[in-house]
Design goal:
By secondary structure, the protein is mostly helical. The chain has one domain. The two termini are 16 Å apart. It comes from Trifolium medium.
Length: 39
């Protein structure tokens, strides 16, 4: 799932500095680590 800028929930959590959410997201779906946004 990506928004119009290509950001995944992982990108947004990282941008906001929420390490706990980043860890939870990657535990559930480690493939999101390889997604790149459009910027």
């Amino acid at each position: 799932m990506q928004n119009s800028k290509g950001n995944t929930p992982l990108h947004v959590a990282a941008e906001l500095g929420n390490v706990d959410i980043c860890n939870n997201i990657t535990k559930r779906d480690h493939t999101l680590i390889s997604f790149r946004n459009f910027e």
